[in-house]
Amino acid sequence: MKRALFLACVFACSPLTADILKVEIDGGIDPVTAEFIQSAVERAREEDAEMLLIRLSTPGGWATSMQDIIQQILNSEVPIVCYVHPQGTHAASAGFFVLLASDVAAMSPGTNTGAATPVFPLGGENETMLAKVKNDALASLRSIVERRQRNYEMAAKAVEEAESFTEQEALEGGLIDLVAEDEADLLAQLEGREISRFTGEKQILTTRGQKVVQVEMTFRQRLLSTVAQPNLALILGLIGLLGLYFEFTNPGLVVPGVVGAICLLLGLMGFAMLPINMIGVMLILLAIGFFIAEIKVQGFGILGIGGAIAMFLGLLLLIDSPFPELRIDPMLALGAVIAFTVVFLFLMRLAFRAVVSPVQTGNEGLVGRQGVARSEVNARGGKVFIAGEWWDAVSAKPVPAGDRVRVVQADRLSLTVESAEERV
Questions:
Q1: Domain ranges of the chain
Q2: pLDDT, tens digit, 9 for 90 and up, residues 227-241
Q3: What does 141-203 look like in DSSP terms, one character per residue?
Q4: Which CATH architecture has domain 17-217?
Q5: Whose CA is closest to 42, among 23, 28, 16?
Q6: 364-419, which class in CATH?
Q7: Whether residue 155 has pLDDT greater than 60
């Protein structure tokens, strides 16, 4: 009796394992997304979950991250159900491959998938390279969809011709397994459904009465995912550049340098997870060069305007993606360019004036200053009163006491002066 009570207490206090784990991918597929999916697959295996549900809404992303996710899906011990949701969203490009690789591919009404033609992140596309990448993508797609018993001919059109399909077209064409209105409808349709794993093993899903547990990103993953947003990465990068420039031109302030370095590193981290176009980078560097030249050579505003135009075009071309979700917003780019141009030119002008202005301290700062001769000043010497101090001074031409003098040269504690009086 005591033993039975003890076992009952142990089971009551033990944490319940999740029946269905759920992750949400809302945005570009990048290394953070791949890491998140990997951790979710491992947790599903450890907790012996009934299945892992991936709610997918993505314009695409990195091919390497897509391959990592597909590898996790195909080797998962737990069935993977990929569901394109909510209505009005899509699973394009890399998301198309992830959808077809899952054990069960589902979409909600009003969604679409496809448009999986490879794009080059560095703008170095040529016919030979494009053919190689397309053939590699088609071979990978063929190995997946044939094993999953999906329609390869239809899937290949998404790669070769960049075609996109509605949920009904995908269902009728044999690309996906079912269309569900919402998550409850999806789970109802999956109840008792027999699926074929990638290994060929048959398995029947049980969803009735199972609880769905949301898997959240870690703080580190949320941070990296946030800074990988193009618009935020842009703002952080510009703040970082201005902060570092302000620190370099005003050493010792510390705060602008620290804040600028952190923002710049976060911005670069975000851009590192985005497909960058080198033409955009070159235009931004050209814009900064124009800004500097505007201050140095006084281009009457032409170089400054050219720099602003170059930076605006560079920001628009910086992210090499056909999907607006992965590109910088044009209005944000325009506002950022105007603000950056005004602040940068203002700081540059202050720095330039500080460099070319005459020295105001030390002996060098005395050159050009005027004072009064307290005694006759000649080649043998004399006394002058300049800048509130008495100085020993010499003059090639005698200067009577009481006349104003101008410093020509300062040598330690002795000055060389000349008369500042206007003689008729």
A1: 17-217, 228-356, 364-419
A2: 878 888 888 888 888
A3: HHHHHTTTT--HHHHHHHHHS--EEEHHHHHHTTSSSEE-SSHHHHHHHHTT-EEE-TTS-EE
A4: Alpha-Beta Complex (3.90)
A5: 23
A6: mainly beta
A7: yes
